[in-house]
Amino acid sequence: MKHSSRAKATGLALGAALAVASVTLPAFAALGGDATSVDADVAKMKGQAHATPAVGYTVSQITLSTGTVVNEYVTPGGKVFAVTWKGPSVPDLQQTLGSYFSAFQAAGSVPHGANHHQLRVQQSDFVLQTGGHMRAWRGAAYVPSLLPPNFSLDDIK
Amino acid sequence: MRRIFLFAFAQLIFLAACGGGGSDLSGGTGSTGTGTGTGTGQTIAPVGANVVQMIVNAGPSGAGSNATFNIPYVSVTICAPGTTNCETIPDIEVDTGSYGLRIIASAVTNSAVLSALPLETSTVGGALAECTQFGDGIAWGSMRTADMTIASETASSLPIQIIGDPNYPEIPSDCTSHGSPEDTVALFGANGIIGVGPFLTDCPACANTTQYNIYFSCPVGGGACNDVEAPVTQQATNPVAKFATDNTGVIVELPPVADAGAASATGALVFGIGTESNNTLGSASVLTTDDTGDFTITYKNVAYAQSFIDSGSNFTFFNDASIASCGTAPNQYFCPSSELSLSATPTGLNNVAKTVSFNVTNIANLSGTFTAFDNVAAPELAGSSQSFDFGLPFFYGRNVFVAIENASTSGGVGPFIAF
Questions:
Q1: Quick one: B75 and B200 in the same domain?
Q2: For chain B, which end, N or C, has fewer CB atoms within 10 Å of the first or last residue's CB respectively?
Q3: Interval B143-199: pLDDT, tens
Q4: What's the pTM value of the predicted model, to 2 decimals?
């Protein structure tokens, strides 16, 4: 929504690609990992997956039985460079964030106020923000060094 | 967040050699009684049978390492059901974005009270426990029942969570995989939390599935816990809905604060909507929500469909790349060079819209010793959100009604937010 308001040409092109193409691609893996491990991850999350190619990357989407949707953004080389989630349950973030889960844990394991609706982690090679409220949680995380060329953060939905 | 806020504040104020707000207490504490709000006049109800004092201050840590800001607190009394074996617990965070009463075990200082709270028995025969999912981590602990009293209102045999219950220290991996435990007062920033949002329980779907990884069954006396379905009658429950009267919702009432903020702000949490002379809707606009508590908020001509108003968010969180941000990792804040006057328009599912003005200031210019600010905001991660989260800054100077699902009020049936 934000990017469309800016009428970014790249954003519009990607939107068109997302609208027309949807193919079965079971690849699903943790942030920073290779999208080559397949059914084990989907099985652990107990969800259903499909993938949607966009210009310069692919979005693998897994829908959990709770209704929470996890999106994984995958480079042409098969690296997961960003993940998002949204829905009534917080997904298995150890699975979703992979090796970066420890950074999320670390941020939550030191005093950080009493706002239990958001947490932000901003490191040189890992950025995460959670938000929402009970019944509607969401979050997004990405690895700056893995972003594809010309990728706009506005395209992380 | 406060610790980092202070650090960021100190760092930036040093660089700027700026004297703004530092030692000036003129913002003072908010006043109780009648005040003038933004727009229409605001009346804050005096403490009474259905009114408890609510205060925004540094929280249970005082000025300690996890001092909080823009978090409202009340006191609640819990008793072993049907007895006078009770304890009053201060510094319970008021959250309109969650459901149920949760108390950190260590905040119950009378062990005779804690041990007398009956464990709930899970559907498979063990002790019911909960892994509460929050945005910043998880809270693990037993589910017990208590008679909860606040002001003169009582919720009898209310299912509550005892976070960090020492009798159930073994957190299952299906729980820790969702976040880091915040099971102490120092980590939680409060002695507990009272979720008084517009719904009855925290996970109605958990009655029929274990896939949320929220409810667990533990061997009584300790041991490994397993996912379990939990009937809604056993779930953490909005206490207001269990009151004998004044059970239709709450009003969060906080006074206005000055641009510089205030050392603290004292207001009221009022129970019931349209049940007493002090909780009438009056001219408030009623905005109905979806089945999660969301509605649309439009900001700069963009409609954010998953938006909400939440007393438990201590900033207002939204997207605006045109506003400068700053702050020390891991937190970022909006830091415009001068205070901005902005507006946004919440619109209910019933298409009732009400535009509100709000300010965003440079957080670096605010006092590190104040705890109440109506003009602090922070950016969402670019592109990732269709949400505008009006946090506690929204609440200063206006009374906000939160009506519970299925409750009948003069403004219609909940769930709705009115202001």
A1: yes
A2: C
A3: 999 999 999 999 999 999 999 999 999 999 999 999 999 999 999 999 999 999 999
A4: 0.88
